[in-house]
Write a structure and sequence with these properties.
By secondary structure, this protein is of the alpha/beta class. The protein has 13 helices and 12 strands. It has 3 domains: 174 residues, NAD(P)-binding Rossmann-like Domain (Rossmann fold); 78 residues, Orthogonal Bundle (6-phosphogluconate dehydrogenase C-terminal fold), CATH 1.10.3660; 70 residues, Alpha-Beta Plaits. 46% of the residues lie in helices and 18% in strands. The relative contact order is 0.09.
Length: 373
């Protein structure tokens, strides 16, 4: 079978229909999935999910054995602790061979290990981590476009995915608009700890430190401008979600924090040492190599920077000529804007060829535009 092998489950089962589970339901339906979408959740969650259109049918968690009896694709969409509990429940059931189970947990090692230990060998489990989300919660906030252009990490048992796992990845790409990648569970957790979990702890620490300084030096927070806000934006995420993440990946996060604290102490001691400049130069070089235009681990998009005047309808004026020429904007971000003066808009496109075409179209429309290096 080829990488393009297709897979269409007879039904989709969403265990815990919250923001991500609800968005999954909306996305696959919008993409043309014709099978039944069943949600398992609390009574309030089911009622809201059906009202929004995330699911066709809703049941309580106690109906799990009934809905998996005929197979299908089961998404475990609880917090990490809930996913582990669901795997324990599934281990006690008679599961059919045509059932594929996946999850949306932000860490993978413990989940994949639990699945391997508890599930029967004839049932396929593929760990998953869609790198998408929102500060909002619950099925009322479900968005069919939440996964568009994001990276969807899949972590199967084996080092190399087999045909069924590749087919699942293709199904997700087609129905969610994401881009999937296969990664070893341990590697996933190391990467996530490095680029997500440790930075989150640092952001929380920086904000709390600024709050403490504010008590003694009033005005500190009022002067916290763009750089500080950019560094600490993620500190607003709810602890309820992060408690499970930090607990399940503690063995990876702890040594990374030790390395970070060692580096900070070294920088403290070298603040007047010319050698510290090497650390700044190295950081700038590494930072420049990071694909800022990719929502996840891999496969960056191609960017265009557009100078725009600050006035109502500016973004519409940029998007209109592109739409008229059949150019699809994959991502958009307002980088820097000063009221009354304008600023820079970042656009991202599928390929360098499309980005170059967009620059020509925007230049013809009177905008100053260039491809981003």
């Amino acid at each position: 079978m080829s990488q393009n092998i297709s897979y269409t489950p007879r039904k989709i089962i969403i265990y815990s229909v919250g923001l991500l589970g609800g968005s999954l339901g909306l996305a696959v339906r919008k993409a043309g999935y014709g099978g039944k979408i069943i949600g398992l959740s609390s009574p309030d969650g089911i009622a809201k999910a059906q009202e929004v259109g995330c699911i066709d049918e809703g049941m309580g968690y106690d109906q799990l054995s009934k809905v998996v009896a005929e197979g299908g694709l089961l998404f475990l969409c609880s917090p990490i602790s809930g996913i582990l509990q669901a795997l324990d429940r599934l281990a006690d059931l008679e599961l059919p061979a045509n059932l594929i189970i996946t999850d949306i947990g932000s860490t993978k090692r413990r989940i994949v290990e639990r699945a391997r230990e508890t599930l029967p060998s004839h049932v396929r489990f593929v760990g998953g981590h869609p790198m998408a989300g929102s500060e909002k919660r619950g099925p009322a906030a479900a968005d069919p476009y939440l996964f568009q252009n994001s990276i969807y990490v899949l972590t199967p048992y084996a080092e190399q995915p087999d045909d069924r796992e590749k087919a699942l990845g293709n199904f997700l790409e087609h129905h969610l608009g994401c881009r999937h990648v296969f990664i070893n569970p341990d590697m996933h957790d190391t990467i996530a700890a490095t680029v997500s979990h440790v930075p989150h702890l640092l952001a929380v620490t920086l904000v709390n430190l600024a709050g403490e300084i504010e008590q003694h030096v009033p005005g500190t927070l009022k002067l916290a401008a763009g750089g500080f806000r950019d560094m600490t934006r993620i500190a607003s995420a709810p602890y309820g979600m992060w408690r499970d993440i930090l607990s399940s990946n503690r063995t990876t996060i702890s040594p990374l924090l030790d390395r970070y604290m060692t580096a900070l102490r070294r920088m403290r001691d070298e603040m007047v040492d010319p050698g510290l400049g090497e650390a700044f130069e190295s950081a700038a070089s590494i930072r420049g190599s990071i694909p800022a235009n990719s929502k996840g681990f891999l496969r960056p998009l191609s960017e265009v920077l557009v100078i725009a005047r600050d006035h109502p309808g500016a973004i519409v004026a940029i998007a209109r000529p592109l739409a008229e020429n059949g150019i699809n904007i994959k991502d958009i971000e307002v980088l820097k804007v000063r009221e009354g003066e304008g600023g820079t808009i970042r656009l991202a496109f599928e390929s360098a060829q499309i980005a170059a075409q967009a620059v020509k179209i925007l230049s013809s429309a009177g905008f100053t535009a260039r491809e981003r290096d």
